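Explain the record.
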Amino acid sequence: MKIAMMGTGYVGLVSGACFSEFGHHVVCIDKDASKIDRLRSGRMPIYEPGLAEVVADNVKAARLFFTTGIATSVHDADAVFIAVGTPSRRGDGHADLSYVFAAAEEIAASLDGYTVVITKSTVPVGTGQRIEETIRRIRPDADFDVCSNPEFLREGSAIEDFRRPDRVVCGVANERARAVMRELYRPLYLNETPMLFTSRETAEMIKYAANAFLATKITFINEVADLCEQVGADVQDVARGIGLDGRIGSKFLHAGPGYGGSCFPKDTLALLRTAELAGAPMRIVQAVKDVNDARKERMVDKIVAAFGGVAGKTIAVLGLTFKPNTDDMRDAPSLVIVPELAKQGAVIHAYDPEGMREAEKLLSIRCFDDAYSAISNADGVVILTEWNEFRALDLRKARELLKQPLMIDLRNIYRPEEMAREGFAYFSIGRPAAQASG
């Protein structure tokens, strides 16, 4: 099939590349000419493991193309995906749909023959209907259907998520559109991937409900961790104990400094606004948002207490992105924690394997080329992101480089007893603090 992908951001680029790998002819469209030039030359605008290879292979196979030209790409397409940004709107926190409706208007002007217009962007319930009305207003003669096909891609593992998803959700209005969606996902359909066909409104709701639930799991275990610290329990053992219950599951039960990224913060807020407008407030989701917002400040207090005050102290911060295997800094805990530490007089020496270029735009920090350079002559270490390379630090070397053997591990990647043996004063989340032995 011929696909036009409107938008080459995270979702559009990954989805377009993977659809081309399925054998479809895909044209990814973006108005940013410099971005398109970079993509044509094989330079990725984002860091995502495996993405550059998938793009290169399918460009070489003449299945994947990049352009700024909308008209011809949409004119020739069987399916047009809207994969543009839906950031939180200033003032009320609702999803900003201006890019979505601008894309719909441009699509309307170029439709020719039966086309399925598919919303990949995360949008509030009812957006599909408004897209249909927008296109119908501009092109009452057009032969088209509008579908909702939310994405469930995790940054850092998006290629694998697309190839082997837990499910594919398609909000369709009729059998004609359903047949197109089946053909688009034919390789997954043949592999018996669950394909859930629903109304558009239901599909839109599934996306928001899924993200809100996962955000709730994260926030729940973070509050459990706080209680564990007060009563002497180990939150990691608690998480294992409840996660082995099939009704609960182990995923997203990892205590830390709070959720961030491009999805959970804005999607929980958009869901709250949708619920408010519908007269069905969601008190649990509101509590999740409030607790997560306060979580970062709580982590600042934890770090300050461990250092005995941070004024005049040099702190080595390892990890700045909101999670490993991405360069995404959106709503990362570091954006709150680092400035507050600096405000209290700390000097920040930072290292992140992929996020430093973006972090330097957002934070007043000194970045280093590796973890040990950042640690050298620091008064202590704070681990904010659980990159694999931080899991295997040479602790003896780190201790020798530090002014004092102090580590605050906000991702629980080390064992307290191990850190005590290595001579560290060690503070983590939801577990007893460890003091150097000997």
Observations:
- The chain has three domains: 2-198, 208-290, 293-427.
- Residues 200-231 form the longest helix (32 residues).
- The longest strand covers residues 2-6.
